[in-house]
Amino acid sequence: MILTARDALSQRVEGLRLGADDYLCKPFALIEVAARLEALIRRAHGQSSSELRHGKVILDPNRLTASLDGESLALKPKEFALLELLMRNAGRVLPRKLIEEKLYTWDDEVSSNAVEVHVHHLRRKLGSDFIRTVHGIGYTLGGA
């Protein structure tokens, strides 16, 4: 990605022809740079969208939407964050402590069973087999 003050059409075309995947001229907003970088990363990994899929569940972190078998899911923010974390780490067992660290900040008051409560709520919405407990370790996604 080229970030530059050179905004002439010939310069943009030359930059792209020399191998740049994107060309952004000043002035630009950092949020736009971040969005373009995310798109480049998705394309580099063969993903055309931000959607995460596991079985019949589709989660779109950019749009903050989730669906099960085509039906929209109403997820609370922590449920959404937990589901995204699990889907981004499909195939890995995530320790409860790690999940807690990812879902909460230092300022948050967290009850000792907060993660378990969110897992319970997600299981009610997604099916009891969607999230698997690995006793003494943590959680992972169940079979798709």
Q: Your description of this structure?
A:
Helix 3 (77-88) crosses helix 5 (114-126). A hairpin with a 3-residue loop joins strand 8 (131-134) and strand 9 (138-141). This protein is elongated. The protein has two domains: 2-44, 3-Layer(aba) Sandwich (Rossmann fold), CATH 3.40.50.2300; 52-141, Winged helix-like DNA-binding domain superfamily/Winged helix DNA-binding domain (Arc Repressor Mutant, subunit A). The chain has helices at 9-17, 30-44, 77-88, 96-103, 114-126, and strands at 2-4, 23-25, 52-54, 57-60, 65-68, 71-72, 94-95, 131-134, 138-141. The strands form three sheets. The chain has a four-stranded antiparallel sheet with strand order 3-4-5-6, with helices on one face. The chain has 144 residues and is α+β, with helices and mostly antiparallel strands. The mean pLDDT is 88. It has five helices and nine strands.
Helices and strands, with pairings:
Elements: E1 2-4, H1 9-17, E2 23-25, H2 30-44, E3 52-54, E4 57-60, E5 65-68, E6 71-72, H3 77-88, E7 94-95, H4 96-103, H5 114-126, E8 131-134, E9 138-141
Parallel strand pairs: 1-2
Antiparallel strand pairs: 3-4, 4-5, 5-6, 7-9, 8-9
Domain Response regulatory: 1-41
DNA-binding region: 49-143
GO molecular function: phosphorelay response regulator activity; transcription cis-regulatory region binding
Distance between the termini: 36 Å
Q: What percent of residues are in strands?
A: 15-25%
Question: What is the molecular shape?
Answer: elongated
CATH superfamily of the largest domain: Winged helix-like DNA-binding domain superfamily/Winged helix DNA-binding domain
**Contiguous helical run count:** 5
Which bin fits the share of residues in helices?
Answer: 25-40%
CATH class of the largest domain: Mainly Alpha
Q: What structural category arises from helix and sheet content?
A: alpha+beta
